[in-house]
Amino acid sequence: MSLLSRLKENWLQPFFFFGNNPVTLIGSGLTTASAITLLSYWMMQMVGHRFANPYLGIIFVLFLPALFVGGLLLVPIGMLLRRQALRQAGQIPASYPALHLDDPLFRHGVIVVLAATFVNFIIVGLSSYRGVAYMDSPRFCGQSCHVMAPQWTAYRESPHSHVDCVQCHVGSGMESYIQAKVNGTRQLVEVAFHTWPTPIRATLNNLRPARETCEQCHSPTRFVGEKLLVKTTFGDDEKNSVTRTVLVLHLGGVDSVSHFSGIHGHHLNHFEYVATGADEQTIIAVTATNPDGTTTQYVSTDWKGPIRGVTRTMDCMDCHNQATHVFQTPQEAIDEAMLDGSPSPDLPFVHKEGLQLIQAKYSSQAEAGRKIVAGLDDFYRTKYPDVWTSQRPKIDAAARRLVAIYDRNVYPQMKITWGTYPNNIGHMAYPGCFRCHDGNHVSRDGKTLSNDCSLCHNLLATDETHPGVLNDLGLQNELHLQ
Ligand code: HEC
Ligand code: HEC
Ligand code: HEC
Ligand code: HEC
Ligand code: HEC
């Protein structure tokens, strides 16, 4: 007997004979179908088709391979079960039937495998096509997943509320594509098993580089020049006295003769820094590339260890890390709200009381909601009964706004509180620019990254009641000054 016919009689024929049972047929259908789908997916990737959605990874990285292995396991299980059943009934034949395409057994198997492949193709094809469109939407990323609520809320109020999450969060190229897939899958597992990190930490290195995101819409070389900033703050006195700080930021850019200047201009060169952790808050060293191609390294004099850690090339997001997910400081939030009219500056001590109420510790947003309303009501009822009687609607509105401020920034269940997410744009509430420009980062030849106040801005007025400069600019009324 030839090797081929021995193989056929001793292996293939019993294989198909015992294989003719529902469990094995379903198993081989699943395996074949998922294998073909996976193969065509890999082929599409090889010819360069890019699937933008990280969550698609869940189908291709987790679900289909699991289906493939599961189907593969069903094949021998079904065969063993059938052999056992036939043996018990004494029906194991002395020789196994031969294989022909007109043999109903064999045809059965082939048809089931083909049908399952076809159905699977349609299901996966349709669901990934429809699913991609849906899963790419900010609604899916931000809303269907409650752990994203803090980032989603901040996003919706930002100037970028119309930019898709994946545009900033999924990089291009194979490496970041795979990374996004792995992240997406990991996040799904975390949500399924309730093991997501609290708070969810931002890592700039995981984001798509600014060149592919920010710079698609904002030209990095646009010359802004000087930018006027007016900051309004309310005091902790009975009258909630208003003061203004006025500064002119030297934003600069690249001017018409290709001269780099100011805040924007200077950091466009290749600056590489080393930070102690992925939150980039403690910067040990920064290396600037000079116009002539040489480099200057500034090292923190506070740092005694080796210069090792998280390295990163500076881009827009190192300053604008909160371009989209803006988490306010309690002062910023309440000042902004009061400038907007509620809490009304007419209510005595509302700034001081409001700040205390939103900064107190609560176990949940629901508890904060109750206690903030009760707290403000108590304050006016006991300390200012006249105001309490005559200005009730203003007090209620103020309380509601305070609760809204709290809900927008603090998420006890995610361990997100005031200050959890530092904003790098300034230097007052967080280190920000002073992570490097603290006057302590010094180069080997003795140059210091200066923290001279006029390096970045001219301070025209600091906490003044009636800054003359606003009069000169004709802005007194524009800014509802009293
Ligand atoms: C314009 C760009 C942009 C868009 C659009 C955007 N993000 Fe972000 N996102 C960022 C940046 C920048 C950070 C880093 C913040 C930091 O370092 O403080 C971040 C951080 C986050 C984080 C913190 C965890 C981490 O490491 O990434 C989450 C969660 C997040 N974004 C979710 C979302 C969701 C959900 C959406 C859509 C609803 C979205 N983002 C849209 C730019 C963006
Ligand atoms: C899809 C286009 C798009 C992308 C991508 C984008 N932006 Fe914007 N950005 C805008 C538009 C449009 C505005 C103006 C919105 C407005 O004035 O309401 C804006 C506003 C801003 C502002 C001014 C905000 C303010 O409060 O005045 C800053 C800063 C900014 N973007 C930085 C960034 C950074 C940093 C990134 C990358 C993380 C980025 N943008 C990505 C379109 C984009
Ligand atoms: C060294 C820090 C830093 C870097 C890097 C940086 N910016 Fe800025 N940017 C600022 C500061 C500071 C402001 C002014 C903030 C304010 O208005 O409160 C600003 C303002 C802006 C504005 C608003 C301008 C206006 O006319 O009001 C835009 C848009 C912007 N940046 C985009 C970008 C983009 C895009 C990049 C990357 C190419 C970038 N920035 C890199 C610090 C930086
Ligand atoms: C990662 C470190 C780092 C951070 C963070 C940083 N800078 Fe810089 N900055 C530098 C370096 C390095 C230089 C270039 C020094 C040189 O010319 O050798 C520089 C230069 C400047 C200059 C030009 C100084 C000059 O000599 O004219 C300005 C203005 C400036 N930075 C403003 C800012 C502002 C505003 C922020 C925060 C929004 C900021 N920087 C954040 C590293 C940093
Ligand atoms: C490396 C650049 C840089 C240096 C140096 C610097 N600042 Fe600033 N400062 C900024 C930026 C950027 C902002 C605006 C932040 C924003 O957009 O909200 C700012 C804002 C301010 C504000 C207004 C902040 C507010 O929220 O009320 C004050 C006050 C101020 N700086 C004081 C100083 C003083 C005093 C010095 C000198 C010790 C100094 N700054 C040095 C970059 C700098």
What Rg, in angstroms, do the CA atoms define? 33 Å
Q: What's the tally of helices? A: 18
Strand order across the largest sheet: 7-4-5-6-8
Oligomer: single chain
Distance between the termini: 107 Å
Q: Give the helix/strand class.
A: alpha+beta
- Global mean pLDDT: 84
Secondary structure: helix percent? 40-55%
Q: Categorize the overall geometry.
A: elongated
Bound molecules: heme C
Q: Which properties best describe this structure?
A:
alpha+beta; five-stranded antiparallel beta sheet; binds heme C; 482 residues; 18 helices; elongated
List the topology elements.
Elements: H1 3-19, H2 22-46, H3 56-88, H4 104-135, H5 138-143, H6 149-156, H7 165-169, H8 174-192, H9 214-217, E1 225-234, E2 242-254, E3 260-261, H10 262-266, E4 271-275, E5 283-289, E6 295-300, E7 310-313, H11 316-319, H12 330-339, H13 350-359, H14 365-383, H15 385-390, H16 392-409, E8 441-443, H17 453-456, E9 457-464, H18 468-472
Antiparallel strand pairs: 1-2, 2-3, 2-9, 4-5, 4-7, 5-6, 6-8
Helix pairs in contact: 2-3, 2-4, 3-8, 12-13, 13-14, 13-16, 14-16
Explain how this protein is built.
This protein has 482 residues and is of the alpha+beta class. Among the domains are: 3-135, no CATH class; 330-414, no CATH class. It contains 18 helices and nine strands. The chain has helices at residues 3-19, 22-46, 56-88, 104-135, 138-143, 149-156, 165-169, 174-192, 214-217, 262-266, 316-319, 330-339, 350-359, 365-383, 385-390, 392-409, 453-456, 468-472; strands spanning 225-234, 242-254, 260-261, 271-275, 283-289, 295-300, 310-313, 441-443, 457-464. The strands form two sheets. The protein has a five-stranded antiparallel β-sheet with strand order 7-4-5-6-8, with no helix packed on it. Strands 1, 2, 3 and 9 form a four-stranded antiparallel β-sheet that branches. A hairpin with a 7-residue loop joins strand 4 (271-275) and strand 5 (283-289). It is elongated. The model has no long low-confidence stretch (mean pLDDT 84).
